[in-house]
Amino acid sequence: MIMNKIRIPHFKNTNQAETVDIPLPEKVKIPMCQHLGMNCEPLVKVGDLVKVGQKIGDTDAFMSTPLHSSVSGKVVEIVDYLPANGRPCKAVVIETDGLQEVCESVKPPEISDRESFIKAVKESGCCGMGGAGFPTHIKLNFDKEKTPIDSLVINGAECEPYITSDYRELIENTDDVYEGVKLVMKYLEIPNAYICIEDNKPEAIKKLTEICKNDENIHIVKLKSSYPQGAEKVIVFSALGKIIKEGELPSSVGAMVMNCTTAGFINRYTKTGMPLVSKRITVDGDIVRTPCNVRVPVGMAVSEVLKFADCNVEIADKLLAGGPMMGMCLYDVDTPVCKTNNALLAFKKNEKQNVMTNCIRCGRCMDACPLNLMPTLLEKAYDTKDVDSLKKLKVNLCMNCGSCSYVCPAKRNLAEKNQLAKALLPRK
């Protein structure tokens, strides 16, 4: 099997932009929904004083992670909030006091075995930091007897245009990434790790190769620079030559995929006990005058982050959380930064954008699809609401990489319709 890939402009304008801390905002709004899974419930009330790292949201639900305050200050509101993903939740609004006092509960966790390691990761509030937001502790808590894992695949591909936040993690925190990988291998008893980096990041490859040179169980995999090299199914195939079938997880082929920034954070948490309260974010786009990588407290308004990068948000026609291929459009400039954000992109309106026309049956979308799907037939099946055909055409395999829409000369909304088509299928 060959997984098709496409080449797209990189626009990695911030490759050499070292991460800087953004000035503390006057207030933050921390939504109780920041990952895949159930919403948290606020643990604080209006008038409470909170500190950095203090737990302010949690739930007993299995698929969830706790939430912590990114600032010290006073809770001034608990409001209803509608995030861009359409899942209503509560949000805790905190007025900062400028002191950034650290909560007394913030201390290195006691870890002695697999169970305590997984518990520590859960308490850290860690969820997938590559954008997907899957609670990390659930991924780590696999059944060793039923689904043995022999390969830890570290995703450092970062194949989306513009984004360099993972690259800066590999460059600035090389030791943390390496030690985080070692911790996961140790406590989960995974014998081999594969750190996968695209070949357009030679400095990162050099640094990781050097630090891993005496460890025969950690392998540096140099991937070809193409899109969507960082997608879960694609990177497992590129690193291990194994195919993840429809409806299955990487564990079905003995693999676990983890973002490189997630690995780095896990190591820092075990040393400091500071939970996930800030994110490194790439800020770029054609109306951003100072593209940069910034460390942002969770809950800070997108508009303030963009202003820091010298972007006039009033002329922005499109705001994206994430990359231009798979990122989510934001409907409000004051949307708060969440734990899963890795980039903010701002663009002005493209007056020359082509209008959608009829399909010319050129077949480019099928050639581009990394999973060998047939986007034109999927579009037709969706338009006619033909559920049986959608099943036969394997629409659930689509990972929404956007390659089909990108190459389409007729500017058809192929990737978008695939996601709408999934909603037509009956849930199991």
Keywords, separated by commas or semicolons:
428 residues; alpha/beta; Ubiquitin-like (UB roll); Rossmann fold; 3 domains; six-stranded mixed β-sheet; four-stranded antiparallel β-sheet; 13 helices; 19% strand
How would you describe what is shown here?
- The protein folds into three domains: 20-106 and 274-347, Ubiquitin-like (UB roll) (Roll); 114-272, 3-Layer(aba) Sandwich (Rossmann fold), CATH 3.40.50; 364-422, no CATH class.
- The mean pLDDT is 94.
- The strands form four sheets. A six-stranded mixed β-sheet has the order 1-14-13-17-15-16, with helices on both faces. Strands 2-8-7-4 form a four-stranded antiparallel β-sheet, with no helix packed on it.
- With 428 residues, it is α/β, with parallel strands linked by helices.
- The two termini are 28 Å apart.
- Helix 4 (174-188) packs across helix 7 and helix 10 (375-383) packs across helix 13 (414-422).
- The chain has helices at residues 114-123, 136-140, 165-172, 174-188, 202-211, 232-240, 260-272, 302-308, 364-368, 375-383, 387-392, 403-407, 414-422, and strands spanning 20-21, 27-31, 41-42, 49-50, 55-58, 67-68, 73-81, 89-96, 151-156, 192-198, 218-223, 255-259, 278-284, 292-297, 318-321, 328-329, 343-347.
- 48% of the residues are buried.
- It contains 13 helices and 17 strands.
- The chain is globular and about 60 Å long.
- Strand 5 (55-58) and strand 6 (67-68) form a beta hairpin.
